[in-house]
Write a structure and sequence with these properties.
This protein is 70% helix and 2% strand.
Length: 337
Amino acid sequence: MTATTVPPTTSVADRLKVPSDVRVSTIKGARFARNRIATGAMAAAFVLAMLPLLFVMGNVLIKGGDVISPKFLTRDIPTTAAATELKNDCATVSKYDPTASCKTSAAPKIAEPKPGIGPAVVGTLITTLLSAALAIPLGLLAAIYLNEYGKRNRLANFIRFMTDVMTGVPSIVMGIFIYTLWVLQFGQGRSALAASLALACLMLPIVVRSSEEMLRLVPNALREGSAALGSRTWKTTLRVVLPTALPGLVSGSMLAVARAAGETAPVLFTIGAANTVAAATTVTGQSTTLSFQIYNLITNGGKISPQMAWGAALTLIVLVMVLTTIARTVSARFTMR
């Protein structure tokens, strides 16, 4: 009796084996070529979008990096010849007067400025923190009303409409409004408080709209579960909704703060001009900011002013990056929890 050979059984996994890259096996011919072209076009678009950013960052870093130092960030802004010291070495002469000749040892003496931007750093921190203290709580309360209480009634729709209008208003209009109302009408004068009011007007619509969107993303099942346990709306909002939406609320608020820190137009009319760190620490007196000093240094001219402007620009970029990084870190930490 002849033995029959049984063919080896093929497993279901072998019969249903899927290629490692589905695109290679299913996209062929013209479709494969179009896919490659589209992928290359997207990569090229990304590179083109990054080139201006890299150019700006590199230019600011190269021109402002030579000026940045601990003394530059803490010294007062020089205004007179008393803020300079005489040097007669060739390096100093070539740095501040490229047209001068210093081939001999008897090089002409030149006044080396002692640049500083300390008042602008202090004023930027004060105005930014004060505007955040004014805009963020009010924006969060408005967002809570719109999403948890107002819903789609007439008042809520009107607030949303006015918020959208404020978002599109140019920043210089906010500065003129605070200057006309606070500085001229009320006679309070230019101060860090006036600049904070103008920046708060810019931050408010951003905080409201971003916070409302974050609250809208909270599942309604959480609200319904809390209501089923007998909690009132305010307690549900405080104990359930806000902790769930906290990462998005923090991110939206910090991004609004980062935008306010770099605004120039509103502070031109409202902040004044302080040249010492002691004067910049006052809230009701004249102060200054990094953005204001960049504008002021560039428009005034001089040999040392452009270098100080580049240093102030680099300081402002680093400050905005730090605020954005803090926002992302806090958001990620709360999200993991």
